[in-house]
Amino acid sequence: LLGDSLLFAEGDDHKIQRKMMNPAFAYSNIKEMVPIFIHVSSILKGLIENEINQGNSNINLTPYISKAALDIIG
C-alpha cells in the first residue's frame, strides 16, 4: 500500500535511500542552516512573549510550532 518510501524501505532499498539522504545531514550543511534556525526561533519567541504579555496563561503552542517547523523546512 505504501511502497518502498523513505519510512518503510528495508534492506538494500533502505541503504540506497540512506546514502542519498546522508549528505543533507553533514556537519557543513547543518552549520549553514543554523542562521535560519535562529531567525525562526527568535520570531517564535516573540510570538510566545506577546501571548504572555496579553495575559494568556494557557497558550496552545501547536500552531506556532507547526508554522516554525514549516518555515525551517521551507
Automatic annotation (TrEMBL):
Matching Gene3D superfamilies: Cytochrome P450
GO MF assignments: heme binding; iron ion binding; monooxygenase activity; oxidoreductase activity, acting on paired donors, with incorporation or reduction of molecular oxygen
A Pfam family reported for this protein in Swiss-Prot or TrEMBL: p450
Entry superkingdom: Eukaryota
Bilayer-crossing regions: none
Protein name per its UniProtKB record: Cytochrome P450
